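In response to the reviewer comment on reproducibility (Comment 2.3), we provide here a single inverse folding case reported in full, input and output, so that an independent group could reproduce the run without further information from us. The structure tokens appear first.
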């Protein structure tokens, strides 16, 4: 599982460096709003909201923004932007690479039009529900800054906390959990004194697909374009991105 998406980990490092702060703020604000609408505005009674608030604080979303997002979700505040709904899209990118996209939108017609346009313009196509979802497994992902931590000791601590697996990337550890254990494992790690960068549900491809460098380049471009869309919160693909391919792309850029 540790190699599930080099692109996702590259994006994570960029977010940590505040390269896409406005995008991160939008994503977390909408997640808080949806969580509050579905489960109420009390994080003590709404586990999803508690997790959303923790993740928002990790990217330094201002307290006022968090409070407004909660009030919008509970109906106490109407900012005129309408209600946000969660939606997923499935499709294929260049070279037949499978895409599973999660979005939060206040205008589903606009969002599906933009997603379809990006697929079509860049050599892919939007599929129907269920067309690629079976190619992915949903897991919990927790990222912890690895500065000052011994790798072996941390892995033992993570396993004790209930982790299924631990990956090591530049600058952080990524802990994988079952879908159901995400919140409890995060809490156990925090109680052990570890600083959590993020905790979220992800989709891991059951099998990754290798591609030539040109196909990889085209898909990375498409992923970046999806990521730039404010409605898109997560992009998952089954594209295999090994270190050699990424190094070659860096040399060519």
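Designed residues, in position order:
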């Amino acid at each position: 599982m540790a190699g599930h998406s080099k692109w996702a980990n590259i994006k994570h490092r960029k977010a940590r460096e505040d390269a896409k702060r406005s995008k991160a703020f939008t994503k977390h604000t909408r997640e808080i709003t949806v969580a509050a609408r579905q489960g109420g505005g009390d994080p003590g009674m709404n586990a999803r909201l508690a997790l959303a608030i923790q993740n928002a604080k990790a990217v330094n979303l201002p307290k006022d923004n968090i409070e407004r997002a909660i009030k919008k979700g509970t109906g106490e505040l109407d900012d005129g932007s309408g209600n946000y709904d969660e939606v997923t899209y499935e499709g294929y990118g260049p070279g037949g690479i499978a895409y599973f996209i999660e979005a939060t939108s206040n205008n589903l017609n606009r969002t599906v039009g933009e997603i379809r346009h990006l697929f079509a313009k860049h050599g892919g196509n939007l599929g129907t529900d269920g067309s690629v979802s079976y190619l992915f497994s949903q897991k919990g992902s927790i990222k912890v800054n690895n500065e000052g931590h011994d790798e072996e000791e941390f892995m033992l601590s993570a396993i004790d906390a209930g982790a299924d697996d631990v990956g090591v990337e530049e600058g952080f550890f990524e802990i994988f959990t079952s879908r159901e254990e995400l919140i409890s494992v995060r809490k156990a790690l925090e109680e052990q004194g570890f600083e959590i960068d993020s905790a979220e549900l992800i989709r891991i491809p059951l099998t990754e697909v290798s591609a030539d460098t040109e196909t990889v380049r085209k898909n990375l471009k498409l992923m970046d374009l999806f990521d730039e869309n404010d409605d898109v919160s997560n992009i998952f693909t089954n594209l295999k991105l090994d270190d050699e391919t990424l190094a070659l792309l860096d040399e060519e850029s």
